[in-house]
Amino acid sequence: MRRILISALLLACGTLSGGARAGVYLASDNPADQPIGPLVTKDEVKPLPYELFKGALDAQRGLLADKLLSKEVEQKRQEILKKIAALQGKVFADSATVNDQINLSAYLIWTGKYTEAVQLLDPLARGEQRGNFMVLSNLATAYQLAGQMERAPGYLQQARDHWPEIWPGLTPEQLKFYRQVENYQLRQLLRRQAEANQPGGGRRQHEGVDAIFGSADAPVRFVGAGGQYEAGALAPAEKEKLPKDALAIVQQLCLWQPLDTRLYWQYGELLNAQGPEYINEAYKVLEECVDPRNWDSTELRAHRRTLLENRPQPPAAQTPPSILPERHKLVLGGVAAVVVIGLLGYFQYRELRRRRS
Q1: Of 33, 68, 144, 330, whose CB has the highest number of CB atoms within 10 Å?
Q2: Domain range summary for the chain, segments of one domain joined by +
Q3: Can you spell out the DSSP letters for 158-226?
Q4: pLDDT confidence bin for 22, thresholds 50/70/90
């Protein structure tokens, strides 16, 4: 089933390397290149349905994994590696354009070659391309995923300062949405740095989701009206702190950071906040965070237990009616038959004796 979903995803999106994603961009002026992630239209931003999003995320994780999930992802990874080799050849020959280098950096990031992406983009960002938002954004992402989080915020801020209103291959609505997502990416980085600088910062990061929604002093708390965690509910006061497109924003960030379990956990909490009909999907996300992702958090395990206890159960399978009579009816029928046969035999015996007499 999962392979079918991933195949459908690849067909629907064209390729895993087509289009732009928040934080990682391809320089393409082809309108047919659609981004992987929420659907951005003139009227709204639609998050991906759970199963389609899960297939997209697994495909992105597969590009980074030694053991790939499917033949489709394996094929796509090989295609990207070939593109990397071709573009690196142009870089070595000093014939690569700026767009070639932007595309090469995206492919390197998607396959986990973060340091190579940094080495490629850093000279561009400090030179003539210091105003190119794609160069700056890709470089910030490469630094973040390479573990050099202190270098990423500055480049993200520069990318925001040079954000265009028009760009080939992207609609104004897409540009607006991606800039919004990168605002939350910057907030994520800054608040994680602040946590890390506090006593016990590493443990604090594991215990809760990123405080990217709401203010720094009053971030969103995923609790019900009574102040405790509830399945399929979020307190109205907390819901007001969420932006309209919170679910789509976190989906896009997850696709850009496919190995970030803490971010994926927040996606599960947002699903649960959508209402009771999303409890089962939210439970699946939190269950995956615990196993196989092994995220060590007491709060996460408690929330997962609440969702498990309240998840809707499938209707019990009904036993089809038997075509055979019930056992007691068979017994009574057999006794009655013996009695009737016995009486008939007795009367026949009496009649024979009478005739002989």
Answers
A1: 144
A2: 1-196, 206-312
A3: HHHHT--S-BTTB-HHHHHHHHHHHHHHHHHHHHHHHHHTSTTHHHHHHHS----SB-SSSB-----TT
A4: very low
90-118: average pLDDT = 95
pLDDT band of residue 314 (cuts 50, 70, 90) is: confident
Q: Residue 229 has what DSSP assignment?
A: -
Taking the whole predicted model, whether its pTM rises above 0.85 is answered as: no
Bridge partners (DSSP) of residue 46 are: 39
Highest CATH level, class, for 1-196:
mainly alpha
**How does strand 39-40 pair with strand 45-46?**
antiparallel
d(CA 59, CA 326): 54
